[in-house]
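Recall the central idea of this unit: under ordinary conditions, the amino acid sequence of a chain determines the structure it adopts. In this exercise we apply that idea directly, starting from the sequence alone.
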Amino acid sequence: MTRYRSIENGVELIEAGRSTFIHAEATSSAWRDFAAWTALGNACEPRLPRPFDFYAGATRTLWIIGAGGFGREVYSMTYTARGAGVEWRVAGFLNDLANALDGFDGFPAIAGTTGHVPQENDVFICAIGDLKGRRAVTDTFRARGAKFINVISERALISGAAKLGEGIIVEAFTGIAANARIGDHAAILSHTTIGHDARVGSCVQISSYCDVHGWAEIGDGCLIGSHAVILSKVKVGAGATVGAGSVVISDVPPGATVFGVPAKRIQ
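Accordingly, the structure predicted from this sequence is:
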């Protein structure tokens, strides 16, 4: 029996053991199939509660921690992130190098350092590319009582059955399927798919155009290079690195670096 569930920007096709995102796009054959299905009098299942929350009170002040290349990338995506201008407004960057934005136009000022003391209306997102540095800084801010929010592109498709932590970055054209779990301070870059029931740990960076299959597991602090594929039920140990373009068909030990098709350990 065909089942569809409403999601933001489209629908979710629910089948045995998997779910598929279908964007609301008239040129898509999958979307036309859905339109034909509804024309027969069928109705979608209702949208599940969002796996990310929005603040119902006054607009908050968002600080971006890190003003390097990744920080500039994250700032640029805030224009089209969910809640922008309503739930929060970007105040500026926090960075220990005061000249990090020299030569780059169109960005807000570096208004402070990582010694910033959170104020009542402050919220934060960490855009430090170095994963060990990201963990150290977010741990420090959390110890000061900082509240981290998720910065999620309006063009990301996220199942209502997914579970997201805090301080997560999800860029455009990314899909996170049913019952996937994403840990705190993970960053999932554009055009990446996280399959159903997959597990992504904290402080993980998944580059653009990656494909993480259903039931795969990625441990804390891993770096996944662009165009990498992690096959179903494969486990990538904490702190491991998967090289760009690799296809991982077997478990990766913690801290290892793998590369190739199929991926082999090189370090």
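The first strand starts at residue 3 and ends at 7.
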